[in-house]
Please model this.
Amino acid sequence: MAKPLTDMTEEERAAFYYEHRDDETIWGDLEPAPKRRGPKKQFGVMLTVRFTTEEAELLNQEQLRTGNTYSEIVRRLVHTLAEPAPDQGTG
Model:
């Protein structure tokens, strides 16, 4: 009887997986890799920004809520600055 995988050395596990690389009973059905969102952008400028403790906490809460990176959150906010302001209709 073969050793459990947890008791094998790294070399033994590598040999086991290599020997069984075509054994569908071990690997099961393969799932396709998730599709990428689109072409990866190349960013060439890095900025350092200081936040108050409260601002940093808001940023952290947004990161936890959305799962986006801090950079992605800040980039989206910067893009909102370029959008035209909605008409306020003060009349």
The mean pLDDT is 84. Residues 6 and 26 are 15 Å apart (CA to CA). The radius of gyration is 25 Å.
